[in-house]
């Protein structure tokens, strides 16, 4: 688990650096949809999800054969890069439409990671479902924010 924990923690750290702009005038002025959770929800949910990613990925990697494990590591790395990228595109660059594309890629990648995790360990795969669900919700939320602020 050390690799998956370190990768998840690095992703969380990179994303949180960009997400500090939630108190910016730009972000506060955005018109947000009714489905926008309260600000306090995000750090709690993301802390739980990053822990989930670290544990479930480690379990899956322990059970996958060499070729599948290598492919899983690549898929996880791509997923975590997309994960951290969203915060930079949305909060730092203020690019709402490109953020939808990143969020959509992250969502697809997350569902693929669930599929791969299920192959390695069924319980771990089911445990990773909230992450893919949250990423799908994030795509919907990003789209709704873009729509209201075109």
DSSP helix fraction: over 70%
Proportion of residues in extended strands:
under 5%
Q: What is the class in the CATH system?
A: Mainly Alpha
End-to-end C-alpha gap: 43 Å
Q: Name the helix and strand elements from N-terminus to C-terminus, one letter apiece.
A: HHHHHH
Total domain units: 1
Number of helical segments with 4 or more residues: 6
Structural class assignment: mainly alpha
Low-confidence stretches: none
Tell me the CATH superfamily: TspO/MBR protein
- The residue-averaged pLDDT reads 95
Task: Report the C-alpha radius of gyration, rounded.
Answer: 16 Å
Shape annotation: elongated
Structure description:
There is one protein chain. Helices cover 83% and strands 0% of the residues. The longest helix is centred in the middle third of the chain and has 27 residues, at 66-92. The chain has a single domain (2-148), classed as Up-down Bundle (Ferritin). The termini are far apart. It is built from 6 helices and no strands. The protein is elongated. It has 150 residues and is an all-alpha fold. Helix 3 (41-63) packs antiparallel against helix 4 (66-92) and helix 3 (41-63) runs antiparallel to helix 6 (122-148).
